[in-house]
Amino acid sequence: MIVCFMSWSNFAPLAAQVGQMFHLSVSQRTLLLATPVLLGSIMRIPVGILSDKYGGKEVYLILMAFILIPLFMIPRVHSLGMLLFAALLVGMAGTSFAVGVSYASVWFPKEQQGLALGIVSMGNMGNAVASLTLPYISKTHGFTAVYNFLMIATVVIGVIFAICCKEMPVDKTKTMRGALAVAKESSTWYLSLFYFLTFGLFVAFTNLTPLFLTGIFRFSAVTAGLYAALFAGICTLVRPIGGALADHLRPMGLLQWVFIAIIAFSILIMVSFNSEALFITGIVLVGLAAGLGNGVVFKMVPYVSTGNTGAVTGFVGAMGGLGGFFPPLVIGWIHDWTGSYVLGIALLALTGVICWFALWKHFIHGDVRIVK
Fold this sequence. Notes:
Growth Hormone, Chain: A; mainly alpha
């Protein structure tokens, strides 16, 4: 998943360079950052279902072979339209999350899955690794070398996975219609809303942090990439901690504090665009809260529908991915309209309020129960 997520987030640490190469405006850059997230989000649903039916190993290997195509294309296109098309295809790398969770969940009892799936989901660290490595590779060896590196890494890891890992047990009698029945569960949609915020924050801010720091505080691309890696790293490393806490404490109570923290730290970011230290502090704290929230949400996924973890993961993961798709677009449009990022961050705080209210009404003081 680390290798796949490096490909999925490849444009974020290179945004300044790609923007200069193709003469992109701020809104065009944010569109480019958001495009891979779109397909990587929507396709998590069918890919998660296919993993449950045919096996995560088989689906993972096919996926890794497919993403070699857009990785080969990206350094060889010469128009924004073709670049966006390649970005859309490389978005399939984001579906690796649904495959990974489906593949790993079958090996552990439910009472251990908060920690187990938290560890598996540390594959999100690929965003941080991309931010650390890709700007340096581009600076020292050229833009094309970045994608040669990603292709080689994908092939090497794919071969190791094929040789060293066994296939998961599957039920091939499952149908697509049966798997889609999880959409009838209200809990599927509530978890999707919560993950829209927490994982959406992870994706959106990993992509936007280099844009913020190079555009507002005039950081170099390499330095901005280091801070983006710090954000992604914190968000990823605390995820299994959130899952482990949810194994022992009431998940809904933990989520309530996560949402309150996201709201508070978003407000801190809103008032700190003139202070480099406060801005970076706000970014780090939001990453900490979002990472804990990601782990808590996925503790609850296997409880929604026994035997359909891939399907539920697909739905919840898709909404989380869309949570990373829309903010860069909206923030880019608002910046072009107002000349400021403040209103865009305010919408993030508002989303936190909506999630907190839904959690409070339906889980904490309502009748809906997933995990006691």
